[in-house]
Amino acid sequence: MFDSKQGGSGPVPASTAAERPSHAPADHPKIPPEKVGVLLANLGTPDNYDYWSMRRYLNEFLSDKRVIDYSPWVWQPILQLVVLTKRPFASGEAYKSIWNHEAGESPLMTITKSQTTKIRDRLQAAYGDDVVVDFCMRYGNPSTKSKVREMADKGCRKILFFPLYPQYSGTTSATANDHFFRALMEEKWQPQVRTVPAYFDDPGYVDALAQSVERAYAGLDDKPDVLVCSYHGVPQRYLTEGDPYHCQCVKTTRLLKEKLGWDDDRITTTFQSRFGPEEWLQPYTVEEVARLAEQGKKKIAVIAPAFSSDCIETLEEINEEIRESFEEAGGEHFTYIPCLNDDAAHVEALVKVIRTNLRGWLD
Question: Does the structure show a pLDDT above 60 at 6?
Answer without folding.
Answer: no
